[in-house]
Amino acid sequence: MKKAIVLFKEGFEEVEALTVVDVFRRANMPCLMIGMDSTEVTSSHQITVKMDALFNEECGNADLVVLPGGLPGATNLRDDQRVMDILKKFNDEGKWIGAICAGPISLQKSGIIQDKKFTCAPGFEDQLPDGCHQDTLVEVDGHIVTGRGPAASLEFAYTLLEKLGGDSAPLREGMQYNFLTK
After folding, report:
1. pLDDT tens digits for 119-147?
2. Which end of the chain is more exposed for a tag (fewer CB within 10 A), N or C?
């Protein structure tokens, strides 16, 4: 079975990070919350979340790595060499990479956004000059999936689930998402 990991640093955006975890777990697909520095990480809105594990070499065995936004969480991820290394590894191996809101700034620093279409929170596109910004809710280019911000979190998570072979249709219906999009 495919496995996803969401990377957490201090200052992450709760909705963007936890929605991915929630959707994957509802679909019975493994998704681990990985603390980069601690087993308890505090969000940008001062909510402390207990992680499933600390970052280690096993994280490279996942099929999807997800970077939430939030400040300073996104910049903390971008400035962590371990994050750059895992992004390069996943990119080289053609594994799925997801980044939402300010999270795509790590894609720029790691050098993997070159000529790729992406979306992000308004104002962050200037920090990704190597990519091709799209004014969309969620953007998929190759094995990279990006999302615009907190309001895009469900569509972002459903898209990631589908890319790993999961079925988002029952979740979209059960979580009342289909009602939103009517």
Report:
1. 999 999 999 999 999 999 999 999 999 99
2. C
**Amino acid letter for position 56:** N
Q: What is the DSSP letter of 154?
A: H
Beta bridge partners of 65: 5, 97
Q: Which residue has the tokens 């390069």?
A: 88
CB 103 within 8 A of CB 76: no
Distance CA 81, CA 86 (A): 9
Q: Would you say how long the chain is, in residues?
A: 182
b/e per residue 2-34 (b: at least 16 CB within 10 A): bbbbbbbbbbbbbbbbbbbbbbbebbebebbbb
Residue appearing with tokens 């911000």? 149
Name the DSSP letter for residue 121.
S
Name the pLDDT band for 114 (thresholds 50, 70, 90): very high
Distances 117 to 43, 113, 150, 164 between C-alpha atoms, Å: 28, 8, 19, 20
